[in-house]
Amino acid sequence: MARLVTTQLLLLLAWVIAWGAQPTASRARTELLDVCMDAKHHKEKPSPEDKLHEQCSPWKKKACCSTNTSQEAHKDISYLYRFNWDHCGKMEPACKRHFIQDTCLYECSPNLGPWIQQVDQSWRKERVLDVPLCKEDCQRWWEDCRTSHTCKSNWHKGWNWTSGVNRCPAGATCRTFESYFPTPAALCEGLWSHSYKVSNYSSGSGRCIQMWFDPDQGNPNEEVARFYASARTSGAVPCGVGALPLSLILVLPLWLLG
């Protein structure tokens, strides 16, 4: 009897693993390295862009953005998204440089594949979710922006777009960033609906994505992407296990008892 139960449990485990390996609509893409998102301004494939503008230039050897996109990323209200950083008065330059760098990373990096997810949105088919941002990058972003002003804690949605650019919604109050984002994690994780997740790792660890890096020393995010891609494809970061249909969950105990 014990041998029969053991055999059944092994078969059950094999079944669950096989089910978890099946593709699902919400699963991240299978191509994880040197890829571009299927989004509004991204190129189909990364390629060299020798004239990327200023803060976007670290990605010039292999970029998902065009030169024009990199130039627009530095404008206060650009054609990219018609987003006004100064919606609550003039944003401090030290703060704005982090938002420009965030835009450059999003638009230009070919190293975000392990975190790309499908979405059903009119302006893009893919987004990133929980990119492990190095803790120093998030800390500096928060420190440089804490005295600038905003009126919302989630900038992905809820704006008044009737004028063609984002304005604070009715009833929203302009307060310091620190009021809306009391911690670095609140800023980096909440700002863009969890596009980032603050990592416990530091820059140079090979385990977190760096928003800032010296291109003369190479792109450290390539190693990070390889590490997480390898972990995912080897099963160290399993996807889908546990996402069994209700009918299967209900029938398994009866099968074991039988």
Automatic annotation (TrEMBL):
Membrane-spanning residues: 235-257
Keywords: Disulfide bond, Membrane, Signal, Transmembrane, Transmembrane helix
GO cellular component: external side of plasma membrane
Signal peptide coordinates: 1-20
One GO term (biological process): fusion of sperm to egg plasma membrane involved in single fertilization
Entry keyword Lipoprotein: no
Residue ranges annotated for the Folate receptor-like domain, each copy included: 35-210
GO terms of molecular function: signaling receptor activity
Stored InterPro entries: Folate_rcpt (IPR004269), Folate_rcpt-like (IPR018143)
Family membership noted in the UniProt record: Belongs to the folate receptor family.
Protein name as catalogued: Folate receptor gamma
Organism for this UniProt entry: Oryctolagus cuniculus (Rabbit)
Gene: FOLR1
